[in-house]
């Protein structure tokens, strides 16, 4: 009778310790799941930005080639043609290319920032896993 009472007492004490630990484990697990989903969203965003960046870079290369072609055509043309119109058109093209290069640079900077943020979140996630595992195994 005494040992069964002692066993019941130990079971009650264990439940008192177990319930908060299980609650803490569930909260950490949920927090971890949220961070993972945020990381996945950031990765998708990076992929999208990289695709855009490639598209813009290809477009810029194409326009750069058009610029070179037009510049060479201009050099081959007779000089008695209205040079002002051609010069104005070439300057417009050059201005557009500069704007596109600036946009590409902005996208590159944004991509780097997002990558840094992902790396920080991954580090936090790893540390959270380590703490959770330590708590689980220490209490088990």
Determine the structural class based on helices, strands and strand pairing: mainly alpha
Q: Find the count of extended strands (DSSP E, 2+ residues).
A: 0
The proportion of residues in beta strands is under 5%
N-to-C order of helices and strands: HH
Major sheet details? none
**Helical element count?**
2
Helix content: over 70%
Compute the CA-based radius of gyration: 32 Å
Give the low-confidence spans: none
End-to-end C-alpha gap: 28 Å
What is the overall pLDDT average? Answer: 91
> What best-fitting shape do the alpha-carbon axes yield?
rod-shaped
- Oligomer class: single chain
What does the model show?
With 140 residues, the protein is mainly alpha-helical. Helices cover 94% and strands 0% of the residues. Helix 1 (2-76) runs antiparallel to helix 2. The chain is rod-shaped, with a radius of gyration of 32 Å.
Protein traits:
140 residues, mainly alpha, 2 helices, single chain
In short:
With 140 residues, this protein is mainly alpha-helical.
Strand and helix layout:
Layout: H1 2-76, H2 83-139
